[in-house]
Amino acid sequence: MNFKKIQWIFLAAFALLDIFLASFVLMNTRFVSMGKQQTASQVVMKEMKNDSITTVNLSGDNRMGYYLAAAKTDDNDELQAHQNQLKDQTPRIVGSNFTSNFETPLRVDKANPQVKLNQVCHNPKLVINGDQYTYNAHLSTSKTIVYTQKMAGQPLMGPAGLLRFRLNDRSEVVGYTQSYLNPGKVLRPRQTTISQKQAVIALYKHNEIPSGSQVQWVDFGYSRLLTSGNHAVYIPTWTASIRAKNTGKKTRCQVNAFTGLVMKNGGQSINSSVTDNN
């Protein structure tokens, strides 16, 4: 084997080695970069664990949502205008709410009340616009079964747009209280929101989750951001229920799903919570 042939073999070997090393460096840089992206949330979740904070399984998937405009307050006019269609009950206005008592209490399965009440909601002779509401197990209690009005396919997370069925001591539905918002109008095209996990991290960073607390649930829906004239702007939010370890007190906190800022109750600023007695 002559020298020139050996030289070419070494050159080819070195070229292959260079290609291998370059590929290794590029791949290693990519993995380091990906690791850095994951580290921020991983570090916070580890801090939460060290603070004895427990959570439900949190999704890292982003959602989509709109800026919506709706009536500033509940539209009782809509409910009053159609109350004559209701049968087997006595409807009336109490304060700012539309309320009604059934002539005959409705028996429901205490463990799965929505099985019967879904049928009730879809009967226009029993509930006005009831098909626009969906069962919310997280807001329901042993005495009240809560349905939330849907806006852009998601539940309203606030005092407006609620349908609350009242139960007696025999777990029978004796009536309901209803508030209603006219469906919201889209103000801007659909946008990406933060994930469920990012929302909880935001709450933790703003000291909304004390040490030893339990994050019981984190739901996606629409909440009022601000009001302008006779209309209000609604945005996608993450609403979390947090249970204190020492007192057992439950608090509801909301995060703007577009910006990641913690919201005041129905308002624009950050770092506030809403007491939840459910």
UniProtKB/TrEMBL annotation:
It comes from the Bacteria. Residues 38-258 form the Regulatory protein YycH-like domain. This is Two-component system regulatory protein YycI. The chain crosses the membrane at residues 6-27. The keyword Mitochondrion does not apply. Pfam families: YycI (PF09648). The keyword Membrane applies. One of its GO terms (cellular component) is membrane. Keywords: Membrane, Transmembrane, Transmembrane helix. InterPro entries: YycI-like.
